[in-house]
Design goal:
alpha/beta, TIM Barrel, 8 strands, binds zinc ion
């Protein structure tokens, strides 16, 4: 999520009702590893948006929180919605208003074992007037929490690839996802060696994104996961509109085309990669994470 630095919790609880419909299970199963389903943009039609995504074969959704005010909302969504998994973290664009107590709350919630990852966390040196030291402090503190709880990290990185890599090398969380990856091949390699998958979404659908498309086409298939970042980052066919999770299907088709492989192969590999790094339950449909013997 790139926009908006205030952290509202606008939606009424009623907006979360009606999401309990069972999902069809069938091939292909795609996993959207990054979308902001808790955003107020989805309040009018969240259940319908999910239903359309499922019709398109997108059956699992990882929803990272961006600030403390959204933690309970993201957790509630995951509790009530099959196939939705929560990540908890403080986004670099939200650290300005966050404090020690936000980290303490995050610590408590992670200890409860309800999150599949710590995120979305990271560094954003693109925004004007950013406070690098403050971003770094929150990033490091959250990476340490990820390491302590054995959780992967979902990373937001803008103009800060090397600074993020330096923090990872120092703190060594167990891995995770570099969301909306847009670095070099060399940086991609460094993330992969540190146990990270690289997230690709709507940006690869723009024919002008040559460098990104080359990355998406040439990086090892076992390093790639899919994401929409909905409601942000719309693909080329939805330019200027709200991005929707159902768009993941066409993003996946685009990526398969770029790589010259069958869609089914891409779908299977990226879903497998997402499960491997996020430790999602093997079978979805329960909407909550169980901390069991699979995670050590
Ligand atoms: Zn995001």
């Amino acid at each position: 999520m790139a926009l908006g630095r205030t952290c509202p919790d606008r939606a009424p609880a009623s907006a979360l009702r009606g999401l309990r419909s069972p999902q069809p299970s069938g091939f292909p199963v795609l996993i959207d590893t990054h979308l902001h389903l808790d955003a107020a943009d989805f309040d009018p039609d969240r259940a319908a948006a999910l239903a359309r995504a499922r019709e398109a074969g997108v059956n699992e959704f990882v929803v990272p929180a961006v600030c403390r005010e959204r933690f309970s909302r993201v957790l509630a969504l995951a509790e009530t919605t099959p196939g939705v998994f929560p990540a908890l973290g403080i986004h670099p664009l939200y650290v300005g208003r966050a404090g020690e107590s936000d980290l303490a709350t995050l610590d408590e919630l992670l200890a409860q074992g309800r999150a599949v990852a710590v995120g979305e966390i990271g560094l954003d040196y693109y925004v004007e007037g950013y406070d690098a030291a403050r971003q770094q402090a929150f990033f490091a503190a959250q990476l340490k929490l990820a390491r302590r709880y054995g959780l992967p990290a979902i990373l937001h990185i803008r103009r800060a690839q090397d600074a993020v890599l330096a923090a990872l090398r120092q703190i060594r969380p167990k891995g995770g996802i570099a969301h909306a990856f847009n670095g070099s091949f060399q940086q991609a390699d460094a993330f992969i060696k540190l146990g990270f998958k690289l997230g690709f979404g709507g940006a690869v659908t723009f024919s002008g994104s040559r460098r990104l498309r080359r990355l998406a086409a040439e990086l090892p298939l076992d390093a790639i996961v899919l994401e929409t970042d909905a409601p942000d980052m719309p693909p080329v066919w939805a330019r200027g509109e709200r991005n929707m999770p159902e768009n993941l299907l066409r993003v996946a088709q685009t990526l398969a085309g770029l790589r010259g492989i069958p869609f089914e192969e891409l779908a299977e590999a990226t879903s497998h990669n997402a499960r491997a790094v996020l430790v999602l339950p093997e079978k979805s449909g329960f909407g909550r994470v169980r901390r069991d013997s699979k995670r050590k």
